[in-house]
Design a protein that fits this description.
Keywords: Isomerase. It comes from Enterobacter dykesii. Its EC number is 5.4.99.-. The protein is mainly beta. The chain has helices at about 50-55, 80-90, 170-180; strands at about 20, 25-30, 60, 70-75, 95-105, 110-115, 120, 130, 140-150, 155-165, 205-210, 220-225. Strands 1, 2, 3, 4, 5, 6, 9, 10, 11 and 12 form a ten-stranded mixed sheet that branches. A two-stranded antiparallel ribbon has the order 7-8. Strand 1 and strand 2 form a beta hairpin.
Amino acid sequence: MSAIIDSFIAPPCHDDIQILWQDEHLLLIDKPSGLLSLSGKNPQNLDSVHYRLVQTYPGCTLVHRLDFGTSGLMVVARNKAINAALCQQFSQRSVEKVYSALLCGHVEHDEGIIDAPIAKDPALFPLMSICPISGKPARSRYRVVERFYQETGLPLTRVELTPETGRTHQLRIHCQQLGHPILGCDLYGGLEAPGAEETPRLMLHASELNFIHPVSGEPVNARHAAPF
C-alpha cells in the first residue's frame, strides 16, 4: 500500500457560514464554497465548518461532510446522542440529498441514472476512479433543469443530482463518466472546456436535505437555492 500524503493547503475562506435554522438539538447551515468541513491534519488547514461552529456551539459535531469546493446545506448535531441518531439515518440511506450543478456541454437525455462503482487509489490521491472490480457500488440520478450558453459561448446544462449512495467525490466522478464534468471541477475535467478555465469555484451546491428530526419525529425538508 502506498502512503497517502495530503499536501493540499486550503486558501483562506472569507465567506461566513449561514445558520439557516436551529433548535436545541441541531443546526441547519449553508456551507460556503472554499471551506473545509473538518480541519485537516496540517495546522495550516485549521479553518473549517467544525472549527468555526464549535466556537459558538460547544459540543457540536458533523454528521456528514461536503467537499471543500461544494456549497450548501449541512445538518450539524449539537450533542452526541443527536449525532448518533442522525448518523443512523445517513447510514440507512433514509436521508434524501439533492444537489444543483452546472455541467459542461449539453446533456442529451432529460434524465437518467449513472451506475458506476468507485474505488480509492492511493497512487492517484486525491483522485477516485471508476473500477468495476474493486470499486464500491455507486448510483446517482440526474434531471436536466435547463440547457444554455455562458457569455463565453460555453454550452452548459443545469441539473439536479440525487446521489443514491454516498461515495467520496461521487457526483463529480459520475458526471465526468457521463461525459459532462461539473463546471469548475479541478479533479475531474471541469476546467478543460474552452471558456471553463477561469471558473471561480466548483459549481456544485447541496440544495435539498430531507430527514426525520431525531427528537420530534417530524420530517425536516430543507431547501436552499444555489448561488449560481
